[in-house]
Amino acid sequence: MSPGKRTSSNRAIETNLIRKSSSGLTYIAEWKGGLLEHKMGHLTCFAGGMIALGADGAPGEKTGHQMEQAAEIARTCHESYARTALKLGPEAFRFDGGVEAIATRQNEKYFILRPEVIETYLYMWRFTHDPKYREWGWEAVQALEQHCKVEGGYSGVRDVYASTPNHDDVQQSFYLAETLKYLYLLFSDDDHLPFDHWVFNTEAHPLPVIQKDKTDLPNEVE
């Protein structure tokens, strides 16, 4: 995507979807049937990393603003984990009825080993080297080990607000393909799959950046 289209997309998201709670948490709401629902899904937490990536190639005057947005979204997604009993994030969390970054409906309180929050921690660490992103990642590792590890692997849990985990007995394939991969890279050196040589697709598959040699370009017509 060209820088111009990226900027236009970010502007539309900021104008129509990004909101700030009364306590200052930045979140990305959902647009449904012409109405804004003040709910942010765990899946949407990838957007912190996406906005940080966009900032890396944005016009100079936009870079700082977008990085600030990315950091705020990362913080909000971390809060969705920190405000649960198990320190694992719910499938979706709301900003209405006096609650912030908390799931209020039973069908949104589950955790199925999703990667998006860890993904944003990885991008924010690579771009800023702020140690809190590794600290937040390690909090997630400890929670996964304590509450999701079972005899045959790792399991999702049905309610992250319960004091003891009720496992769903499912290890999603993306836990290995994405969640653990992002955690591994979060604690690896930056030159291990560096972003200027590799692009991760939406399922965390690394694709090499092909640099076209100038000698391969066709000769200009004289």
Automatic annotation (TrEMBL):
Keyword Secreted belongs to the record: no
Disulfides per UniProt: C45-C77
InterPro entries: 6hp_glycosidase-like_sf, Glyco_hydro_47, Glycosyl_Hydrolase_47, Seven-hairpin_glycosidases
EC number: 3.2.1.-
GO cellular component: endoplasmic reticulum; extracellular exosome; Golgi membrane
GO BP annotation list: carbohydrate metabolic process
Cofactor: Ca(2+)
GO molecular function, one term: mannosyl-oligosaccharide 1,2-alpha-mannosidase activity
Recorded metabolic or biological pathway in which this protein acts: Protein modification; protein glycosylation
Family statement drawn from the similarity comment of this UniProt entry: Belongs to the glycosyl hydrolase 47 family.
Name of the protein this chain belongs to: alpha-1,2-Mannosidase
